[in-house]
Amino acid sequence: MSDIPRRAAARTAKLAALPLGFAGRTALGLGKRAVGMASDVISADIQQRTAEQLFSVLGQLKGGAMKFGQALSVFEAAMPEEMAGPYRQALTKLQEAAPPMPVASLHKALAEQLGEDWRSLFAEFDDSPAAAASIGQVHRATWKLKPARRNARPKTIAVAVKVQYPGAGDALLADLKQLSRLAHMFKIIQPGMDIKPLLAELKDRITEELDYAMEAETHSAFAEAYANDPEIFVPRVITSAPRVLVTEWVDGTPLAQVIADGTVEERDEAGRLMATLHFSAPARAGLLHADPHPGNFRMLPDGRLGVIDFGAVARLPGGHPEAIGRLVRLALDDDAQGVADGLREEGFIKPDDEIDARAVLDFLRPMIEPVAVDQFRFTRAWLRAEATRLSSPRSPAYQLSRKLNLPPSYLLIHRVTLGSIGVLCQLEAEAPYRAILEKWLPGFAPVS
């Protein structure tokens, strides 16, 4: 019997208990109001306690809960500093670690996926996991390469072996079902964060992410697109099976460590490379890396950005939609009517909705500030200010946002872009983002 199904009841119980705890804290808040305590103090207290319990539970879970925690963690920079500070370390742990599966379960999975003689494929295999993914764990090993000539000494290569947790598929579905009931709790922590589309999107892509053979295809496409690239490194795929993926090992500094204690120059360069990957991949590979949490990236000793996980991707065979670049350029050129007309054509404004074009442009301009100047530094303070502007019911931006639509075809692009911005704000990275867009984003370069 696999490890994950055995613990399913306990995991579900922890998740199910969260709304009860929230209800109790809300009742406590009502009691405090009865004795005259200020409402802003009460709500801050409830908010902090909710966050504490939520992150604590997510940190103990695998499957969908951990995957959701990883996705949520990139939005940490948007949270108020007094709340984000105590939980930053816990969120980082979600990106880098989880309890390992038993060695017996590991060996059984390898035998099922690579054959009973799986040990003969490796010169060495470390049973202790080097890292954890959301639905599997990674082991360091030494792979035997087939010799080019008969009787030649076999060569070896350091590899990362990603092995899926037994029962991960069922656990992932169960966790996401439970988490879908908690969306209102996340609004207590960050009122402007719309969680339901994120959950729906994660659920839609479970099948792809559970199939490591499919991941191997997209991984190989990225590796081919960035072969010999001076800035981005994608390790080669060595072999794959539906539940096991073997790739070249990547040594480097985890991006979470760069965020925590990197120099200004190191953080700036990491941000520039993250933005380059985000905008160049659709043009070069027809794919968008769709899981931009820091655990998926390493800064290599030679200065390149190493990318080590391709389980979540968006397929963009034509590159980024040309309309995105064109509309951002129109906004920079102060063409309010052109922006409104373009948004209506793309489905962001419904055909029959009357809307003030100038108000729409005023709504968008702060968001595109990073590409309105030659150099821009993303900061947590900037992101918190934007989150406040967009989430406060008294804000004109909040009122206008309720009238705008997000077409399904843009949902993943939107979510990945927000996630990437969250990482750039964690890095507090300064770079020439406008120049990166002019090079890689269709429709954005000014007409000469």
From TrEMBL:
Keywords for this protein: ATP-binding, Kinase, Nucleotide-binding, Transferase
Record-annotated ABC1 atypical kinase-like domain positions: 93-340
GO molecular function: kinase activity
Pfam families: ABC1 (PF03109)
InterPro entries: ABC1_dom, ADCK3_dom, Atypical_kinase_ADCK, Kinase-like_dom_sf
Similarity annotation: Belongs to the protein kinase superfamily. ADCK protein kinase family.
Protein name: AarF/ABC1/UbiB kinase family protein
Organism: Paractinoplanes bogorensis
